[in-house]
TrEMBL record:
Taxonomic lineage of the native organism: Eukaryota, Metazoa, Ecdysozoa, Arthropoda, Crustacea
Protein name: Aminopeptidase
Organism (species): Daphnia pulex (Water flea)
Cofactor detail note: Binds 1 zinc ion per subunit.
Subcellular location, record wording: Cell membrane; Membrane
Bilayer topology annotation: Lipid-anchor; GPI-anchor; Single-pass membrane protein
Family the entry assigns: Belongs to the peptidase M1 family.
């Protein structure tokens, strides 16, 4: 898939006319590319996909004989002068070789062209204005009953080649001069400000919009839009450069939040990096049909509507945080990705990992009440742990040799593992030293490309200046984290009987080790920055275990025999921890007596680590389940999120078996005290994370445990809504999905149909998504099957970009899972045909994603057999997918878990005798019990 390195583009002059008409969705184009010839050749290879090139129009013109590196004039002005002088010095074109599979076209020349010379390549072409959400594509929306169209770009990764022929690799940076033809009734946008507009001579209803030339950048960052959108300028006083939010005209009232936080986050990132944003404006556009959450085109960011637009009255706290995070992520790309770009796609983590990390920092800079750092561990680090503990995981630095491997790059590993190791690095370097090293790195590679060693070098230089003491060079420390898949399990075995030392070992953590494991051929060791404490009110201790050490002795753990030790303070390290039985016992004792002595982030870590390690047979399920008993007292967001994720796995594994009620009884003893504490209805003083915690409690109490009080609350509200006693404006947006989900799950066709109608009627993107997810809670197989048919019906009102969400949500429904699996088996051809044009973010078929969503709930050999047969029957589509391999591995480990642990867990559950009258009670928590009763007494059904 790689281009030969015999040319390097200097500048592009591109003219495009998107024809946005129902009988002619095409783009008419003309391009001139100024290139340096680096090697003597008679062929010019470029990227092109789904473009018809007019071969007779191709011209290759000699510009000037020059020694590369000695050009000392403006490239654009100089090329204009020389083109006029040598306008007749063209090289004859004798052929055009098309390689659609490689997305490469090769211009064959009659004679050689020579290294050290510049050439201008020009041609006419026609591209498809497709509906595949990639390249230069079309999107639609309804405005006052009329279907409206717009043309918009999504070029990552890499799809600029679908809009115009180009050298479409990230390390082939150039300047771009864009000219867009449009109807007079529409407007256009691009990366830079518009210079002027002129009539189009041969198309009466069209005009040309001329844009300023961009800075030097990669082709995937070119952004364009032609629409009837309205632009709303930000009213923020922090605008050093103009911010404008572009939407369909009816949605301009939803732009205020994004317009307010965008300039604030920009200012913070300029402060953090000590580098000013170099472009003269920022556009943020809300696109009705968009594959990714957003795309960081320099100067013109495109967003999915749900990730940019907020209704201050009707958008949930989840939606509001999502907008803050995505805005922070995309603005961070202006430095990490745009200013300094990965050399090739195998290193895409250099932009996505850093931007994921900075989305937390950016969101925190404008919304400190969100407590983003507390959320990082449970939302990002623990999320990627679940994938990176599989043998089918991959390293961050992952070879890309074909389009299939490129398509698999944009996954949880590149985003969340990348962010997690950046966070770990920032903590062991110290945040100020890390910040200065980022400035050094960005300055050193500005407007260029970077490989990992460029990053390590900049950090090393700053570490040396700051006098940091590290166990090895930054490169030696960090390379194992990026070139090896997986992560370490740190096992802490303490000495007792008066000794305060112990032994620490490291080894790769795997959920399940197969017979042909790479463990036998690869040494999985890391430089691990270990932190530990036995008193969180005091500074923690830090030591390193080396990449050369399987184990090490520690002379002083600062803990007596009756004191616990907890490693990985704040869970900032990218590793799990296992302890000896005595230390686990001390931790359990502390949690039962006063769990607040261990901060929320580490309580979350203990729950996630221990319950996951038990799946791998490293600690007993008796130890892991004993740890969960204190949850009857737990009230904080992070521990409950970690617990909900880990216990959801057991819920899935036990579902459908004879003793499932034993599990429901136990979980009721943990969840109902939390539900009573947070209450069903909102209070005026609820904090952001308190609202989040309520969602955990209601989801479990209503949907999983069928708690009568919870279900009745939800049904009453939904019934009032159906009867028009209230409207959706009277229901808290934070509870809308939970209420609708519960009522639809416990109702029938009327409840589902009402939800569907409300989904179709809603004009608020994030509300529509909540209602769509709620619809999938149905427990009637016929209704579920009907939804799956709607998914592949382009008249259903369910957008193609949301069809994946619909399917995956049904697949996570205990009843829906089997229906979805059978539907994909029996209706494969129809589903595959419907999704064939939609490739999703990063390219590639959507079918592997649908398959992957079926894997988590597999817990029987019968289900596993059907799943594997589905893969084998469609191996041409599914066989090479990394996500499919990971899904099958997870499904196999699930079935193995049932064989190994089902009886063990059920036996433990039967011993607990937890009922509503004998739940865990501790005299230290009388006040907490009173608060729980107060919380349960909240009486208003609707928003306060």
């Amino acid at each position: 898939m790689r281009l030969p390195k015999n040319f390097l583009p200097i500048s592009y002059d591109i003219k495009l006319i998107p024809i946005i008409e129902e009988d002619n969705f095409t783009t008419i184009g003309y391009i001139e590319i100024l290139v340096d010839c680096l090697e003597t050749t008679s062929n010019i290879s470029m990227n092109s996909a789904d473009i018809t090139i007019n071969q007779p129009s191709i011209l290759v013109t000699i510009i000037f004989l020059i020694n590369i590196g000695q050009r000392n004039k403006s490239v654009r002005n100089f090329s204009v002068q020389v083109t006029n002088l040598f306008s007749q010095d063209t090289v004859e074109v004798v052929g055009l070789i098309l390689e659609p599979d490689r997305q490469i076209v090769t211009i064959q020349l009659a004679t050689q062209i020579f290294s050290g010379q510049q050439y201008k390549i020009s041609m006419n072409f026609v591209a498809v204005l497709n509906n595949e959400l990639r390249g230069f594509y079309r999107s639609t929306y309804e405005e006052e009953g009329v279907t409206k169209y717009l043309a918009v770009t999504q070029f990552s990764a890499p799809d600029a080649r679908r809009s115009f022929p180009c050298f479409d690799e990230p390390n082939m940076k150039a300047e771009f001069t864009i000219t867009i033809g449009r109807k007079k009734t529409m407007s256009s946008n691009s990366n830079m400000p518009r210079i002027k507009t002129e009539p189009m001579q041969d198309m009466e209803d069209y005009v040309w919009d001329f844009y300023q030339t961009t800075v030097k950048m990669s082709s995937y960052l070119v952004g364009m839009m032609v629409s009837e959108f309205a632009g709303t300028p930000s009213e923020s006083e922090l605008n050093r450069v103009p911010f404008t939010i572009w939407t369909r005209p009816s949605l301009t009232k939803l732009t205020k939040y994004a317009g307010n936080i965008g300039p604030q986050i920009m200012k913070y990132l300029e402060y953090y990096t000590q580098i000013d944003y170099p472009l003269p404006k920022v556009d943020m556009a809300a696109i009705p049909d968009f594959a990714a959450g957003a795309m960081e085109n320099w100067g013109h960011i495109n967003f999915k509507e749900a990730d940019l637009l907020i209704d201050e009255q009707r958008s949930s706290e989840v939606a509001k945080q999502r907008v803050a995070e995505v805005t922070g992520h995309e603005l961070a790309h202006f430095w990490f990705g745009n200013l300094v770009t990965h050399d090739f796609w195998n290193l895409v983590w250099l932009k996505e990992g850093f931007s994921r990390y900075f989305q937390y920092i950016g969101a925190d800079s404008v919304e400190p009440g969100f407590k983003m750092d507390e959320q990082f561990g449970v939302a990002t680090l623990q999320s990627v742990f679940r994938v990176d503990s599989l043998e089918s995981s991959r390293p961050l630095d992952f070879g890309v040799n074909n389009s299939a491997s490129l398509n698999s790059l944009f996954d949880v590993v590149v985003y969340d593992k990348g962010a997690s190791i950046v966070r770990m690095m920032a903590n062991f370097l110290g945040h100020e030293s890390f910040r200065r090293s980022m400035t050094r790195y960005l300055h050193s590679r500005a407007y260029g490309n970077a490989v990992q060693d460029d990053l390590w070098q900049a950090i090393q230089e700053q570490a040396d200046i700051d006098g940091l003491t590290l166990p090895a060079t930054v490169k030696a420390i960090m390379d194992p984290w990026t070139i090896k898949m997986g992560y370490p399990l740190i096992t802490v075995t303490r000495n007792y009987g008066g000794s305060v030392g112990g032994k620490i070992t490291q080894g790769r953590f795997l959920l399940r080790k197969s017979a042909n494991s790479t463990e036998d051929t690869t040494v999985y060791r890391w430089f691990v920055p270990l932190t530990f404490t036995n008193d969180f009110t005091l500074p923690h201790r830090s030591i390193w275990i080396s990449v050369t050490e399987d184990s090490m002795s520690v002379a002083n753990l600062f803990a007596a025999d009756d004191q616990w030790v907890v490693f990985n303070v704040g869970q900032v390290g990218y590793y799990r921890v296992s302890y000896d039985d005595t230390n686990y016992g001390l931790i359990l004792k502390q949690l039962s007596e006063d769990y607040t002595a261990i901060p929320p982030k580490n309580r979350a870590q203990l729950l996630d680590d221990t319950l996951t390690i038990a799946r791998a047979n490293i600690v007993s399920y008796e130890t892991a389940m004993d740890l969960t008993k204190y949850l009857a007292l737990e009230r904080d967001y992070a521990p409950w999120t970690a617990a909900a994720n880990a216990l959801d796995f057991i819920d899935i594994m036990l579902y459908g078996f004879a003793d499932f009620n034993e599990w429901k009884d136990y979980m009721s003893g943990l969840v109902i005290p939390l539900y009573q504490y947070v209450g069903f209805d909102e209070g005026a003083q609820d904090t952001h994370l308190f609202v989040y915690t309520r969602t955990h409690a209601i989801h479990w109490a209503c949907f999983k445990l069928d708690n009568a009080d919870c279900v009745q609350h939800a049904d009453d509200v939904y019934s009032s809504w159906m009867s028009s006693i209230i409207t959706e404006n009277d229901i808290s947006p934070n509870l809308l999905r939970l209420i609708s989900c519960t009522a639809i799950a416990n109702g029938g066709d009327p409840e589902w149909t009402f939800g569907y109608q409300k989904y179709l009627a809603s004009t608020l993107a994030n509300e529509k998504l909540e209602l769509l997810k709620a619809m999938t809670c149905a427990k009637d197989p016929d209704i579920i099957y009907h939804m799956l048919e709607l998914m592949i019906d382009d008249t259903s009102g369910i957008r193609l970009q949301d069809a994946n969400t619909l399917f995956s949500s049904i697949a996570s429904n205990p009843i829906g899972h089997g229906v979805a699996l059978d539907f994909l088996i029996t209706r494969w051809d129809e589903v595959n045909s419907y999704f064939s044009g939609y490739v999703g973010f990063g390219g590639g078929s959507s079918m592997p994603g649908l398959f992957r969503s079926l894997c988590d709930r597999v817990n029987t050999n019968e289900q596993l057999t059907k799943l594997i047969k589905l893969r084998d029957d469609h191996f041409d589509v599914l066989g090479s997918s990394k996500s499919v391999k990971q899904g099958v591995e997870l499904a196999q480990s699930n079935v193995l878990w049932v064989e190994q642990h089902y009886s063990e867990v059920i036996t433990w559950l039967k011993k607990q005798k937890i009922t509503s009258s004998s739940a865990v009670v501790n005299p230290n928590y009388l006040a907490m019990t009173v608060l729980a009763l107060i919380g349960g007494a909240r009486s208003t059904f609707f928003r306060i």
